[in-house]
Specification:
There is one protein chain. The chain has four helices and ten strands. It is of the alpha+beta class. The protein has a ten-stranded antiparallel sheet with strand order 5-1-2-3-4-10-6-7-8-9. The longest helix has 34 residues, at 2-35. The protein is elongated, with a radius of gyration of 25 Å.
């Protein structure tokens, strides 16, 4: 009888060790899966739940994510829409645990320039938030006149711009924090 207890105890220890090993393998697989998820996919998984986004220069917006590409996203923040390069993101608060990849190569790879050209075509009044080298971002209000390969030109609306300039203001994409349109 005593041997039966010893063997039962050994079998229990072996089963417990096997269970711990399986749990460790599952945890490692989950970590590896999470390590392959890009920020753009996490943003796509958000659905209709609003998020708080802080961008470079302390620029903050709250709204619902609408379009997300590999390099930029649009946030609906009524009465405005905000177009921001993903490289400008400092933090996103309020994200759920879901993620979703974009099946459409066209929607996933659409460039920042093509999104800006849509605003230029519509002659939308925009506010461009720009890195200025200071703690506060520079803002330029106007309409997007031209979109080049790596820059845009904004035709300022006098009285609404951060500086009274005549003619278009050229902005390299690298300086762009966000473009707010509407309202």
């Amino acid at each position: 009888m005593r041997w039966d207890d010893v063997f039962a105890d050994l079998e229990g220890q072996l089963a417990a060790a096997g269970q711990l090993d399986r749990e460790a393998q599952v945890a490692e697989l989950v970590r590896a899966e999470q390590g392959a998820i890009a920020l753009e996919d996490r943003l796509r998984g958000q659905g209709e739940t609003p998020v708080h986004v802080m961008l470079t220069g302390g620029v903050r917006f709250r709204g619902t994510l609408r379009q997300i590409s590999e390099t930029w996203f649009i946030l609906e923040s009524a009465p405005h829409s905000v177009l921001a390069p993903l490289r400008s993101v400092v933090t996103v608060a309020g994200l759920g645990r879901r993620s979703r990849t974009e099946a459409s190569t066209v929607r996933r790879t659409r460039s920042l320039a093509s999104a800006l050209r849509t605003l230029a075509r519509d002659r939308a009044l925009v506010t461009c938030f720009l890195q200025s080298g200071h703690s506060e971002p520079l803002t330029v209000n106007g309409t997007i006149d031209t979109v080049g390969a790596d820059y845009l030109e904004v035709m300022p609306v006098h009285g609404r711009s951060g500086s009274e300039v005549s003619g278009a203001v050229a902005v390299p994409f690298g300086a762009l924090i966000a473009v707010r349109s509407g309202g």
